[in-house]
Design goal:
elongated, 55 residues
């Protein structure tokens, strides 16, 4: 669904960098951040994270 700010940026066809920055401000976690969190929770390991996330 997204926040009002993010929806407004999408509606106004903002560039990807602007959308990503707003999403991060709104609390979005990247796939890499989520994978690291799962490692700390014991649900995954570093090798699995590397298999999914490219630098």
């Amino acid at each position: 669904m997204g926040t009002h700010e993010l929806r407004s940026l999408i509606y106004n066809k903002a560039d990807l960098d602007t959308l990503r920055a707003q999403a991060l401000r709104d609390g979005m976690r990247t796939l890499k951040q989520d994978g690291i969190n799962k490692i700390f929770m014991g649900l995954s390991d570093y090798k699995q994270l590397l298999g999914v996330v490219a630098e």
